[in-house]
Amino acid sequence: MTTRRPERLVNLVICLLATRHYLTAEQIRRAVPGYEADDGTDRAKEAFKRMFERDKAELREIGVPLETGRTSAFDDEDGYRITRNAYELPPISLAADEAAAVGLAARLWHSAALGGAAEGALHKLRAAGVSLDEHAAVPLEPRLDSGEPAFGACFAAATERRELRFDYQRPDGSDRTPRRIHPWGVVARRGRWYVCGYDLDRGAPRAFRLSRFAGRVKAVGPTGAFERPDDLDLVSMVASAGPASEVTARIRVRPDAAEGLRRVGKASADDVDLIEIPLSDLESLADRVTSFGAEAIVEEPDQLRDAVIGRLRRLAAMPSASVKNGPVGAGGAE
User: Are the CB atoms for 128 and 117 separated by under 8 Å?
Assistant: First the structure.
């Protein structure tokens, strides 16, 4: 898939922010997705040159401090970098309504490919021996689901400062529980939306993930029913929240297979092919296990096993369903 120009420009900025040294045009060409591949022809070289010149001009036009220079006296051509101090904005303080507006605008960000491509560019630079400033790397968020059903009601309740009522499902898929909160705001973290506020039943601040809401979300009572804390930091509130469940999923994988599951979990002390993964999101983990086909079988908990089996049944019911990784077994995947 061709990388769109805005994505290529952001990838370029991330690469140049992350390096301590000047990168030559050829290093940039190899690291940043979207540039004309070098097939040895003059046409490809000229196409890259024109594209790179346009990108440099556009970055400078919008105020990006693109520097040109050489890392050492032994370099035979100029390179490029962006100094973090010159690039960063000064500290920004937003009022509650301004922060809410920024959060709503972020809801329109649809660039899963951007995050993956930009991180890939950094990996390529490291592999090429380029020294990277880890503290200068720009944190990347995966795509946010702008279709989260509970978003509108939560955002409106937080804006109007009305009590919010909803049913909430635990990560392990157990029974729903009714919750009542004073919503302070809605925030995104690591590709997930959360509403943060004061839990009226538990008498303490809490953060709730919108994807775990079940049924209807309802705002009740008058507007302006509560005040937000003066030192409110929604992102820190979500980041510091402990896991909602101590449930651990145990998944048996074939020897020397299912490397993706091995990376996100850890092997049991007694069996290297029994992978233990904290169950923070049942639906997401069920999707992941299903994608590994017959290489993975859920041993526990039952809720995860049932979720995987449900996916397998839906696949089996599809007219042209095909099994990619081998035969399907109970608790396995396609």
Answer: no
Number of Cβ atoms within 10 Å of the Cβ of 299: 14
- How far apart, in whole angstroms, are the C-alpha atoms of residue 317 and residue 139? 41
Q: Give the CA distances from residue 130 to residues 21, 28, 42, 87, in Å, rounded to whole numbers and listed in that order.
A: 8, 11, 27, 21
Full-prediction pTM beyond 0.70?
no
Q: Crossing angle of helices 42-61/5-18, nearest 10°?
A: 80
Collapsed DSSP state (helix, strand, coil) of residue 314: helix
Could you count the other beta carbons within 10 Å of the beta carbon of residue 199?
15
Looking at the chain, list the stretches that DSSP marks H as alpha helix, in order from N- to C-terminal side: 5-18, 25-31, 42-61, 84-87, 96-106, 112-127, 151-160, 234-240, 259-264, 282-291, 302-317
Question: Which H or E element spans position 189?
Answer: strand 176-189
Task: Give per-residue burial for 317-332: e unless 16+ CB within 10 Å, then b.
Answer: eeeeeeeebeebeebb
Which domains can be identified in the chain, with CATH numbers? 5-94+117-136 (1.10.10), 151-240 (2.30.30), 248-317 (no CATH)
Per residue in 176-230, pLDDT (tens digit) is 889 999 999 998 876 678 899 999 999 999 999 888 888 889 999 999 999 999 8
Q: Are residues 257 and 273 in contact, defined by beta-carbon separation less than 8 angstroms?
A: no
Q: Binning pLDDT at 50, 70 and 90, where does residue 260 land?
A: confident
